[in-house]
From TrEMBL:
Gene3D superfamilies: Vaccinia Virus protein VP39. GO terms for molecular function: methyltransferase activity. One of its GO terms (biological process) is methylation. It comes from Xyrichtys novacula. This is Methyltransferase-like 26.
Length: 206
């Protein structure tokens, strides 16, 4: 059971956004893309028992940690974690069917992965979400070409030094990419530690 300090800090604020944003009165199906250690999905599953959660990860060590959290908490509403590469088409996402999910959650991935993963995230979410389904992303972002405060500027620089394909993405760019997959930015919520939650809604074609 790996433990990330950031996940421990932000799991409750993100849960508060989920409580406000999803229907807690009926059964729902959710996928977390890039579940990390497993701290988030087990925390959300304990609080939101009406949601059946599917954790996923690209990193093999993290997959093992997610399974350790599942074993520890014995949650009936968390499925075994699947290996998922967000840069690949959704047909390679562990058999998840088109328009089968109410919710997709993606926490702290977009800025520490190549742009192909972000593009794949939106394209895949646009396919697997039901009409009116919700994609929630969380992390630090640029706004209209501007990064603030200085700590986020420094963070962006350090990410790009580690990997030129990483870095804070601009919300306007993400909104544009999302729209091409039928997802529309519904709400931007300021979060602690200069992060934001972005809520994208899948528009029905009716």
């Amino acid at each position: 059971m790996l433990s990330a300090a950031a996940a421990e800090r932000n799991k409750e604020p993100i849960l508060a956004v989920l409580r406000e944003s999803v229907n807690i009165g009926r059964p729902l199906q959710a996928l977390e893309i890039s579940s990390g250690t497993g701290q988030h999905v087990t925390h959300f599953a304990q609080a939101l028992r009406n949601i059946m959660w599917q954790p996923s990860e690209y990193d093999r060590q993290s997959l093992a940690s997610i399974e350790a959290y599942r074993a520890h908490y014995q949650l009936y509403n968390v499925r075994p974690a699947i290996h998922l590469d967000a840069s690949l088409p959704h047909q390679y996402w562990g058999g998840i069917q088109s328009e089968s999910l109410d919710l997709v959650v993606n926490i702290n991935m977009i800025h520490i992965s190549p742009m192909a993963c972000t593009e794949g995230l939106f394209k895949g979410a646009g396919a697997i979400l039901k009409p009116q389904g919700l994609l929630l992303t969380y992390g630090p972002y640029a706004v209209n070409g501007h990064i603030s405060p200085q700590s986020n500027v420094d963070f962006d620089y350090s990410l790009r030094q580690r990997n030129p394909e990483w870095g804070l993405r601009d919300i306007s760019l993400l909104s544009h990419i999302a729209q091409s997959s039928g997802l529309f930015l519904e709400k931007i919520i300021d979060m602690p530690a200069n992060n934001k939650c972005l809520l994208f809604r899948k528009e029905s074609l009716v």
